[in-house]
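Q: Spore coat protein YutH, please. Structure only.
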Amino acid sequence: MHPLFLHYPIHTPSKQVAEHPYPTYTDNEYHYFIIPVTFSEEEAWEKYFIAKHFHEYDVANVLCPIQNVHNQFITSIGKETFMLYYARESELHQMSIGKQLAIFHRIGQLFPYKVESINNYGNWKELWIQKVDQYEQLFKTYYQHKPTPPFMRELVDYFPYIIGISENAIQYMNLVMKERNYNEFDQPVLAYARLSNQLQEPYIWTHRLIYDHPARDIAEYLRPMLCEQDGINHPTIQAFLKDYLSICQPSPFSWKMVFARLLFPIHLYDAMDECVRLNYSDTPLGKIEEMQIHYEKNLQTFFYQIGIDISKESVIQLDWLMN
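A: Structure for Spore coat protein YutH:
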């Protein structure tokens, strides 16, 4: 038995079913998750209300915090602090990826309280500026380090391109924020910090959710496929969009938000992070450049592929991208 259970007024589940990513136990009805935390009790309450909101709509696979015997969510054991969460399987997980995400967004839009600690809604431009500044400083530090790491010598000519399209995305976001063609879809939702394969997992980790525009999740789901030649034409993406759009109807503003987020090259920053983390002796720059060629070609036809008439919706075309 994990010692954390001694601090909670529940019947201790006897069966451990997983160790990673977190120690997980079950009593055959619920699963219990022991998760280390670094946030405050106020933030824990916020996560509790978020989880309870989804549970009220039968999305029971969202992890919900449990209060300990002192009526607190955060429990200290030695120098570490933990929270105990519970959840059970949900029918939502049995649906297609597109329908799962659409229903998750719909329910998230109905959340009745103001979200503070995880609110990124309307803050993309500022966060992107911070990221550019951070990486410019990091690049400068690595480049000035002697001897210069091999991967940095290879990236030196490519880095200005990454910064250039980052700044272009920031400028594009400035223009998008002047858009007034909204609809009810543009309300904030509970979203994933970076959506990848989370919708294929049986449980939704509440502590990894943020409060943001639904375009965030759409863009991050599309991003990896835009690095491939098929792009939005890939059957997986076509199925995702068909199922998502059967429930949610993004506004023209939302699609411009999706495009702006795709324009910001998060995937290239990820590739640089991988180079730094592994200290590559040979940077896979050729692969990165090939990936970006596909990516730019898919961005060129993005609005056409999703059925947006650029002449009617005042879509701003980027000369450098179209050429």
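A: Brief note, in case it's useful. Residues 124-322 form a domain with the Aminoglycoside 3'-phosphotransferase; Chain: A, domain 2 fold (CATH 3.90.1200).
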